[in-house]
Amino acid sequence: MGELERVLVLEGVWKRYGRGRDRWAAVLEGVSLTVAPKEIVTVLGTRDQGKTTLLRIAAGMERADRGSVCVDGIELMGLKDRQLSAVLRTKIGWAGRDGPGMRMRMRDYVGLQLAAGRWWRKRKRLLRTVEAMERLGVADCAGARWEELSNWERTRVELAQAIAPHPRLLVVDDLLDGLSLGKLQEATRLVRELAEEIGCGVLMAVSDHMSPASSDRVVRLEAGKLTVMADHTDPPSRPPRRGRRAYTESSINA
């Protein structure tokens, strides 16, 4: 697999945090990881093992101390803040558990990344927002606020705002924790379908007790290092699913 066939390449990534005077704790120690288009890579780990730090660095939301972080062929480590912000808006979708940091309607939240990019015309921005909410089944939540939503609605709204710009890399941070078994299975199916429809790679972090059944690769983060737990990246090719609407640019303009 060539470099251009990978939407995410981490090489030798280190990250340390201070813990008291003259004490430093390494959260990531020379971590290397790749994600290909339509591939789902799941990171397992207990609390405080650094899963969120790893995902934030992969998404360009936090800078590593050293190493290489490349998204869709763009090296993030040397970018200025304005250049990095443009990559975040156009190349990366982030779905976490916190929701919007202010009181806003969900239609505005889902379209937030689109509104930040001046190259998005208003009509196309609206179409992308409506399409994402309809695709995730949360169109009826458009006028609601975050505190009014159920846990399952929040999960789908988060995925909707993350995929609205059609990112190359979808990063999902502990979003599925707290879901019932049935909703967990439905959520993982949704993530798989979105990856295939949009063509994005997925980097997802989950707790140790959860079953990443839909993942192509599963790795564990422990003591700052990654260990491969399962690798299914070379299975027989899957036949296309029937009766599913393709989530593509052509469907927006139809």
Low confidence ranges: 236-254
Mind telling me which CATH architecture this is? 3-Layer(aba) Sandwich
Question: What is the top-level CATH class?
Answer: Alpha Beta
Helix share bin:
25-40%
- Mind telling me the CATH superfamily name? P-loop containing nucleotide triphosphate hydrolases
Verbal overview:
The chain has 254 residues and is an alpha/beta fold. The chain has one domain (3-253): P-loop containing nucleotide triphosphate hydrolases (Rossmann fold, 3-Layer(aba) Sandwich), CATH 3.40.50.300. It contains eight helices and ten strands. A six-stranded mixed β-sheet has the order 6-7-8-3-9-10. Strands 2-1-4-5 form a four-stranded antiparallel β-sheet, covered by helices on one side. A hairpin with a 2-residue loop joins strand 9 and strand 10 (225-231). The protein starts with 7 loop residues before the first strand and ends with a helix. 37% of the residues are buried.
